[in-house]
Specification:
Helices cover 34% and strands 21% of the residues. The chain is an alpha/beta fold.
Length: 426
């Protein structure tokens, strides 16, 4: 038996998740693709040897055919998630959806109710849960290595290239247009981890501070131009577009597909014209469309009295995710990108804890070269397919109900930040 899936939105993430069908053809098959872009549909047709009647320009057209599939994979842009997910769940299909689920609390609760009514399994692409790094930490908590959790400290530093390429010059740069704040679009991963690692309880209150203070026109270098190409500071500016996107080819998976050509057909002239015609070539301080925050700090109080802190920094010199969990009988410290966890059990005989170093890098599945998000991209597909095919459960694969808490924290955090008050999470 193969698990049959239809991908909705054949961009970067759609390509990643559907790739599991190529590496595991006996278990998983793509039987349809939905995308409004004819070029993307042609790419999908060639990649998975699909027929024209398996290609759709919108989700309603697809649902009307009553397709024979076990799973829909939603990898569309945030602002249309609700529009895409609702008909899928109303038709009774299982769903794997890219994060964030939706950008509004009312829509989130409505989709939850529809999924329950129609007995749909809904999985959220919080891929970091599935990495060996965070799975190991979760298993240590389940094994009572830390005792009762007292506090969780987490940080995400979004690097200069990623922040500029995705959240200033790209399609996630405006909260109203993309349907998500910076915290929801980027760090709902981290808030999900916070709630999942501590899911023996639930979040109750949140306070949040921050905003957009650095990547604004007032901080542009004196004499800078609107576009990097003719700027007198282009040789010395950390954020110069040509160096980011052409010289170093950072964010290539998000940037050049917008040209609508096969990668091998995209020329240097195409790339330079793209920078000249789009936000990618603009001064990072002068993208007037961009309004999301560039730093945030939030505090979450859980029902059992445990607390969690999270810092989100946009445009950091060194990207990375950091975690420090303090429990009554032990502590964990780690940096996700390093793949190294330091476990410090409480000692009966010394005020200094023993430091036990755990390296999880060898546990990342590299067999198929499917290593995105520290192995999480492959692991989530493996978990979902095995669950649907065999009923095999993993510690990472939880119901939609468990994923909702993190979104409620984010919605409340943004309310707190904008209204300057502590918000009760309901």
């Amino acid at each position: 038996m193969k698990i049959k899936a239809i991908v909705v939105g054949f961009g970067d993430r759609g390509n990643v998740y559907s790739g599991y069908a190529l590496t595991n053809p006996d278990d998983f098959e793509i039987v349809g693709v939905v995308d409004a872009n004819p070029f993307k549909l042609q790419q999908a047709k060639e990649r998975f040897h699909l027929e024209n009647n398996q290609l759709f320009s919108d989700i309603d057209e697809c649902i009307k055919t009553k397709p024979n599939c076990d799973l829909f994979i939603n990898t569309t842009m945030d602002q249309i998630h609700y529009k895409v997910m609702k008909p899928i769940l109303e038709a009774g299909y299982n769903l794997l959806t890219e994060k964030p689920i939706v950008g509004k609390k009312s829509e989130l609760l409505e989709l939850q109710a529809i999924a329950k009514k129609n007995n749909c399994k809904v999985f959220v692409c919080h891929v970091l849960r599935y990495t060996p790094f965070y799975c190991t930490i979760k298993q240590m908590i389940l094994d009572n290595k830390l005792g009762k959790i007292i506090s969780i400290q987490m940080d995400e530093h979004v690097g200069i290239a990623h922040y500029g390429g995705s959240y200033v010059r790209c399609k996630w740069n405006n909260e109203k247009e993309c349907g998500s704040s910076f915290l929801l679009a980027k760090s709902c991963h981290d808030i999900d981890l916070m709630c999942w690692l501590n899911n023996s309880t639930v979040p109750e209150k949140v306070a949040c501070f921050g905003g957009r203070y650095f990547f604004i026109k007032e901080n542009a270098p004196k004499g800078s131009t609107e576009r990097c190409i003719d700027c007198p500071h282009k040789e010395t500016c950390l954020y110069e577009a040509h160096r980011h996107y052409i010289t170093h080819d950072w964010s290539s998976n998000l940037t050049w597909p917008q040209i609508n050509k096969k990668p091998e057909e995209i020329t240097l002239e195409d790339k330079e014209k793209f920078l000249a015609d789009t936000l990618y070539g603009k001064c990072i301080f002068k993208v007037k469309e961009a309004d999301i925050s560039d730093r945030l700090a939030l505090i979450v109080n859980f029902k059992d009295g445990s607390i969690a802190n999270f810092n989100q920094i946009g445009g950091a010199p060194q990207a990375g995710r950091y975690i420090h969990i303090v429990g009554t009988t032990g502590e964990i410290v780690g940096n996700a990108e390093s793949g190294v966890i330091t476990y410090m059990p409480a000692s009966m005989d010394s005020l200094t804890c023993e430091k036990i170093v755990i390296d999880v890098n060898k546990e990342i599945n590299t067999k198929f070269g499917f290593t995105g998000h520290m192995g999480g991209d492959y692991a989530i597909m493996d978990s979902v397919v095995k669950y649907l095919k065999y009923g095999t459960e993993s510690i990472s694969l939880t119901s939609l109900d468990d994923s909702i808490n993190s979104h409620l924290v984010v919605f409340s955090a943004e309310e707190s930040r904008k209204e300057n008050r502590i918000v009760n999470i309901k």
